[in-house]
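Two quick folds needed for the group meeting slides. Do the first one here.
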Amino acid sequence: MAQKKRSIELTQVTQWEDGKAAHVEDYLAVEEPLEMRARRYSLGVTLRTPGDDQELVAGFLFTEGIISRRKEIVALRMPSDKDPERNLVRVTLDPSVRLATNSAARRFSAGSACGVCGKASITQLRRRGLRRLEAAALFNPETLCELPPRLRAAQEVFGRTGGLHAAALFGPTGELLVLREDIGRHNAVDKVIGWALLGGLLPLTGHVLFVSGRGGFEIVQKTIAAGIPLLASVSAPSSLAVQLARELGLTLVGFLRGRRFVIYSGEERIAVSVSAPAGAS
């Protein structure tokens, strides 16, 4: 089982308010490196908020194409907080996983903000064999509008620190299945997908992934890898994210706030009726 890690740190700060300064205690979101190793290879280093590390590693291995199924993870050795190598996870993979041929391309460092840096392009993802998502699911726009308050209400650590991103998996009718927080939005997504992978729930057909912040290229490719047909975000997607979503059939929604959202790709999965522009014949 995964070790429970501390995700909040208490510190002393000086607060200025309405002309008065005072020393007060404040909460910070913890940020620490995590390295993943298998055999003699380093699979990657990411800056993350400790907690749910087992899910993070499993999700990372899957969404980055290092493994393709749960059974290829034989064991995850999760260190304790007292371990000198407490930020090192040792992964035992099935012998069929060929690290010698693909690990060189995966020796990178991932910052908490940028995701997997220097990675690639849509062309590389095509080579990975990511498949176009089926268009069977249909979602109610009213259900989508209910997701932001449900996400916010469940963000326990964010409520105390104000410094974390969140990713939440919802069922077809808007029920919250799992929420994970992290200083990096891509890490939060990997934790959610890792939760599903370890639970034998992939692919996540008919589900919605909702993320705080923007819907970037990395998050789009992870969503597609997990078989999730709809990705929604509080902010805007990037141009490359939209391009990838359109090419591989992902429904991509941005600016989901209040009773408004923008559909960038996959409109056919959302039960909306588009009115003609004013003056159109």
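Then this one, please, same format:
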Amino acid sequence: MKLEQRFEVSAPLDRVWSALIDVERVAPCLPGAEITEQGDDGTYRGDFTVKLGPTTAAYRGELSLQEVDEAAHRVTMRASGQDKRGQGSAKATIVSVMREEGGVTLVEVDTDFTITGRLARFGRGGMIKDVSNKLLRDFSTCLTQAIEAEPAGPTGVVESAPETERGPSEPIAGRPTAPSAAKPVQGFSLLLSVLRERLRRLFGRG
């Protein structure tokens, strides 16, 4: 299944680029995701949890930056995960390209993913695609707000207090604060949201 997401960030290209290739920085914007380990080879390992009513689908997987082309501002990430109960798997290739136009950075994200197991049943009727698109919209909104809220100095570089001047629990400027335990994606809430959008489109056409 392929997904396309486009969004704008009111920030310079270099700032947006730095944010999007920082996996630990963007992970808190994806509901249910939590980075638990970074390998010496640049691979990130973590968990992704989706709650479907009384059932929780928990995946353990890894993500790596396969290609980082700073000149073209193009990055390719690959992610894979296994259901912790052995009841399914997921794989994804995410390609992000960005460019600056009129002081606004345009970001294009193309995702190609496959999923098996319990969550695959929602693929009927395009439901899993609608849910995934909703997650991507929420992710891009969170990331956009975080980047645009960064305090920038005269040169456009994000300012943050030196570590010796920050408290031990004070977050670095511009980096979303991740919860100690990532909250699982509430599957039914997402489904209801998607159904409402479908009904609005249906009656809108009528």
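Slide caption for protein two: The chain has a mean pLDDT of 75.
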